[in-house]
TrEMBL record:
<dbReference type="InterPro" id="IPR036628">
    <property type="entry name" value="Clp_N_dom_sf"/>
</dbReference>
<dbReference type="InterPro" id="IPR004176">
    <property type="entry name" value="Clp_R_N"/>
</dbReference>
<protein>
    <submittedName>
        <fullName>Peptidase</fullName>
    </submittedName>
</protein>
<feature type="domain" description="Clp R">
    <location>
        <begin position="2"/>
        <end position="187"/>
    </location>
</feature>
<dbReference type="Pfam" id="PF02861">
    <property type="entry name" value="Clp_N"/>
</dbReference>
<keyword id="KW-0677">Repeat</keyword>
Amino acid sequence: MFERFTQDARAVVKGAVEHCERSGSRTVDAEHMLLALIDRGAGRGSFALAELGLAERGESVARALEEARRRAGLSQTEAEALAGLGIDVSEIVARAEEVHGVGAMSGGRKDKGRRGGHRSFSRGARDVLERSLRIAVARRDRRIGDEHILLALTARPGVAAEVLADHGVTHESVTRVLHGGGGTKAG
């Protein structure tokens, strides 16, 4: 499938691996792809993010993703659902970090027993790549671009889509910028 990726899409995947390595994560996640897409600054996906006002709010997105990572990758919606059952995720995180250090629940601690520098892709990241292929095929695009990765990130439930939506970037708004009237700024 990777041979069908444009240079921009390949750069996003490579950037996601770099974000994964810098964070010390064991696997490349969908959130790493989002950060790489924001960093990229080139390509149709980056253009759409800029049009929607997200380019200048990358730090806010990174903070929201880090907060979700500290919650063991739970989205805010999932944390709220657990709260409805009487489970306070914030309290669990605080206690775990008190005993084991900040980021203890993130799964991002360095794996000292690793062989080589290869990072595998999490199920969520693989799902984003598969969805980007399906989106490209559905649009009859010959190549998978970074815009297809962005559309897949917004279409897949989870932390990346929730953080994007919290910043005014939805599947509908990205589709509108890429394929419709465009030019609508996020609120």
